[in-house]
Each structure stands twice: as structure tokens, then as C-alpha cells.
Hints:
Helix 2 (about 90-95) packs across helix 5 and helix 3 (about 105-120) packs across helix 5 (about 140-174). The protein has helices spanning about 25-35, 90-95, 105-120, 125-130, 140-174, and strands at about 5-10, 15-20, 50-55, 60, 75. With about 170 residues, it is α+β, with helices and mostly antiparallel strands.
Amino acid sequence: MAEYRTIRFRLNGRPVELAVQPHENLVEALRRGFQMYSVRESCGQGLCGCCTVYVNGKAVSGCLYLAALVDGCDVQTAEGLGTLQQLSPVQEAFIECEGFQCGFCTPGMIMMATQLLQENPNPTDEEIKHYMSGNLCRCAAYPEIIAAVHRAAEKLRASKETDAKADQAATVAG
């Protein structure tokens, strides 16, 4: 039996620790230790995107990433993007555009869409398809997923415009 090693990291913004085995992948550790059920293992080969999480702000395949490697890192799952009371703009857009059918791939899709929009706030259909090509939807809800990414981009741009107007008003008033 392999020995456990305790790792410490930040999960969705809060410090945590967990005893992990050397061979345990990040999906297994997050589900076992913290009930992060948005992180799903489907293919186990890093090909489908269902297990997408952020490690230090970059998307990784949790099924291929050893849990021990996140010691000292920041890890974010779909649960950390928003709350039940305040969903993220990407989560809202996926609901509004029905960017899912069975929902199994949805957390990974949302994670990749969020990262895409951080890097490219106004992507074309082709850019969305290319960026998210590592995320597979068995139900073929791709048109709705693409629509959801565009809707999320609109929401994020509108939010930035509102913030900019508020900053400008505060500057004039101050």
C-alpha cells in the first residue's frame, strides 16, 4: 500500500490540506477530499475536457495531473467561479442559451469558456471552436455552447462598460 503525503493548497480561494497517495490524480483527490463533483473523469486520458480545472490560473486536465503536484498551488474548480446566489457570467450564459443537454461536460466547458474569454473577450465562432476543441460533448450541443460563449462575452463586455462608467462618474464627482 502506498503511503499518503499531506499537501496544502488553496482550493477556490481557501486554504486546504489533504492526504494523497503518490499515484492519485487531481480528479480523484478533489472528489474524495472536498466533494468537488463538477470535476469529472470521463476518458481518463486528457482528451475530453470533463476534468478541466485551473492550477495557478491555467486550465489542466485533472485526470492527468497528479494531486501531489498542487502542493502550494492555487486550484479552482467550476464551484469556485460563482455561487448559487451569484453565478458567473459564463455560468449564467450557459443556462440562458441552454449550452448543455445531459450536463456531464458542462463544468469543463464552462472552465474553458471562462479562460477563453479572459484571453480573448470577443472571440469569433472559429476561435471558440479552436480554443474549446479539447472539450467534447457527447450530446453534440455545440451550437448552444458556442452561443453561450458569445452571450457570456456580451455580459462581460457590458459589465466592464458599466464599471468604466462608474469609475468615470466617481472621478468627476471626486
